[in-house]
């Protein structure tokens, strides 16, 4: 059996891990989009022939894990795509949105390239490719074993990262005996406000583990709602400005809305308009409501008492583009929650461009941002920032709230791996992390008793 790493190798985006079984079956774990500056070529070329892939298994719906699925199909993949039910629901929303954003962004990019006399870039995929990809999905429940080929099975375990997220446990019956491999996907945090905590998984011989926060501890958040309320009060009441919050459309937006809903129910939220400005976020919120079986007991109890965790007076969900544009000329304080979470695409990028120079405003960053993205640039508190090719002064206040992160930190990751007998894990591969974080996490894993920790490079392969 062989495994090769074609994405999320010493970087965070583009998750793609290819397993070739003893019989030659090719199983791809995730098919994510590379995000950030200078990733165009990585998204155009897989590093393998899509026609040769037999099966695709998805860990969760985030675009850096599913965003190239339609291109895989466009380039010849025709096998089964396995996912949880909620992951398919979200992909049905997010992949169409991804296709739309790419078409619009490519128009702008190619306009500039044409003026400079440069060759035009190829569109990765369109809506028809998304439709064809979704037709290949087969959904399975957590803990339900499904066969990939005779002697090879897979099973999902809840990782509590986003709605429907799962680790993938693979069992291979080979001539030399049974081998097991577990791919964590992305691991959420215990005691998530909406989702269940990550669950333990059976002993594995090999593990592919995310390492996004392999060298980081989340700051302790005594009262997340109080922190959010303080930012709202400082921006919207004291400075009478706009609070712009880039947020992932899935889970992060709903967690913010849930916190604001609770503050409103408690009578502590100022009477100001709150806008969820993203068609994707609006649809994702509806998908969340349709998959309450993934929720933890606390929010289910709140829904039973309150009736709706994602709806309160002065909350407005916006899909129409003209209503979105109108927010930029709107006077007076308000809160705008908009995708994308890394501020790299979508409507929030326009909101930041229109509001970043006003010192009364605040940009609140509430999740991980890949180093090349606009969100990461803003976190560094620069004097200026370039958006859509134009330079803007950063006069708005930049705030960061790590308590909203959906990724486990290194202590939480070590606790998650605590279900394993470390000495029985033959190899542990670190993916989905920047190299400095991975090196630090490797040392912590060695201290925890794991023996062989590998940090694969892009395209690198290993025999198991």
Number of domains: 2
Beta-strand fraction estimate: 15-25%
Strands in their spatial order, largest beta sheet: 6-5-4-3-2-1-22
Residue runs with pLDDT of under 50 for 5 or more positions: none
What gross morphology would you assign? globular
- How helical, in percent, are the residues? 25-40%
What's the helix count? 14
pLDDT averaged residue by residue: 94
Please state the second-level CATH architecture of the largest domain. Answer: 4-Layer Sandwich
N/C terminus separation: 5 Å
Which labels suit this protein?
Rossmann fold, alpha/beta, 464 residues, Metallo-beta-lactamase, Chain A
Description:
- With 464 residues, this protein is of the alpha/beta class.
- It is built from 14 helices and 22 strands.
- It has helices spanning 40-44, 63-66, 69-74, 85-115, 127-134, 224-238, 252-265, 279-290, 297-306, 321-329, 347-355, 374-379, 410-416, 435-447; strands at residues 2-7, 16-20, 26-29, 55-57, 80-83, 137-139, 146-149, 152-158, 166-174, 177-183, 206-210, 242-246, 274-277, 315-318, 334-338, 362-365, 384-387, 390-393, 397-400, 427-431, 453-454, 461-463.
- The strands form four sheets. Strands 6-5-4-3-2-1-22 form a seven-stranded mixed beta sheet. A seven-stranded mixed beta sheet has the order 7-8-9-10-11-20-21, covered by helices on one side. It has a six-stranded parallel beta sheet with strand order 14-13-15-12-16-19, with helices on both faces.
